Task: structure prediction
Amino acid sequence: MNDSLYFTLGMVVGFLFVFVVALIISKRRKKQGKTTEYDERQKAIQGKAYKVGFFVMMFSLIANGILCMDMKPWASVFDMTFTGIALGIFAFAGYAIWNDAYVALDGKLSRYTWLFGIIGVLNIAVYVINHIVYESDDGLITNVIAGGLFLALSFVAVVKLIYDKVQTKKELDE
Amino acid sequence: MKNLRLKSARGAMDISQSKLAELVGVSRQTINAIEKGDYNPTINLCIAICKVLNKTLDELFWEG
Result:
């Protein structure tokens, strides 16, 4: 087995591990009665958000394919696919956040603002450390795109919070 | 179309959007969307709101 196969296997095992852990936590929470609840309007909007995310991801993957037909690929296959997935996730989450369908009934959008911001900064920091300390371009696409995605979602959440405050003030003044 | 009857029924009982949302089991934004006319609630939600505000479906939701 060569090195790249070990790398691929490591990634697959990593993804599977995260998936299994998430499944176990989800089942435990259901047993304890701690389910995440969304109301009917939120569920309807999430359905639309999934559609939006799906089409954005599909079109970005098609665009990548068309670009690669005439030009040299701008990144590895994995990185190009990851970019498409990230754009799809941004479209889904951004649409859901803007239409008040991302946060569950007992949740607060402000918490997600901080969480997304921290995750975004950490991802960018990982790339910067790799680049400066280890002089490696590992994570140029994946960490930067992931960091950009979370920072963009944090920005959408902040704008939404400000917009809601302004709208509430307007309605109270009426 | 704005649902002003819902807004005034809520105001008559001196209940905020958040309180009504909590009593009915939805988010405050959903109550806001219903009052602004941006969302048409299902019949179950309409009934739940009527029960809390002590009104009939006709009084709150019928466009007559």
Observations:
- The CA atoms of residues 35 and 124 of chain A lie 32 Å apart.
